[in-house]
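Format notes (please read before filing issues)

Several people have asked whether sequences and structure tokens are stored in separate files. They are not. Every record keeps both together, in the order shown below: the sequence lines, then the token lines. Line labels are part of the format and must not be stripped during preprocessing.
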Amino acid sequence: MIKKLLICFCVLFAIEGVAFAGQGPLVFMSSDKEGLKKGDSFDCRNKIFIHADFSGLKNKAHAASVVWINPQGRKQDDADYKFSGKAHHVWFLLELHPALGGKLFKSIDPSIGMEEFIGAWSANFYLDNRLVESRLFYVAC
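Then the structure lines:
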């Protein structure tokens, strides 16, 4: 049993070592580009950012990407970013826009036209086509 466990650990370590020479990224959500207003609950009028701080990467080209999953369980949006080096900070932005008719009344009631965006979301963060973190967050109006 110990031999099997050791083999599994070595295989897992080898897989993790593909992109990282050290530990994985620090991933967090915020309502600002600088990452100062961290949280996992957002107002529908907020911009929503996902940040990742990478350190200990292998010194080569990398690709970071995010897939935003809406409360209905469908892909809302995605984005990618290419970079190189051993350390890097990456952020991606999600902006929620009301349905076409909702823009007129949004100043009166911010939830008009935003009904489909209210609820639990997830952001799947990838590095070099591998899922490194899935973050859950909530949007309300």
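For reference, the curators noted about this record: Confidence is low (pLDDT under 50) at residues 1-22. The first helix runs from residue 2 to 16.
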